[in-house]
Amino acid sequence: MKIEDYTLDDGTPWRLLTPYSATAGWAILWLQGFTSTIEGHSEGCERMSIISGVPFAILNYAGHGNHPVTLGQATRKQQFEEVCAVYDELVKRGLDRVIVIGGSFGGYMAALLTGVRKPQAVILRAPANYKDEEFEYPYSETTEGREGEAKDIYRQSIDKTFSNSATEALQSFNGASYIIEHGADTVITANIPQLYYQVAKNGSYITIHGLEHSPKLMLHADEWFDIIERWIQTIIHATMYNPQNQS
Question: Per-residue b/e over 182-197, b at no fewer than 16 CB within 10 Å?
Answer without folding.
Answer: beebebbbebbbbbbb
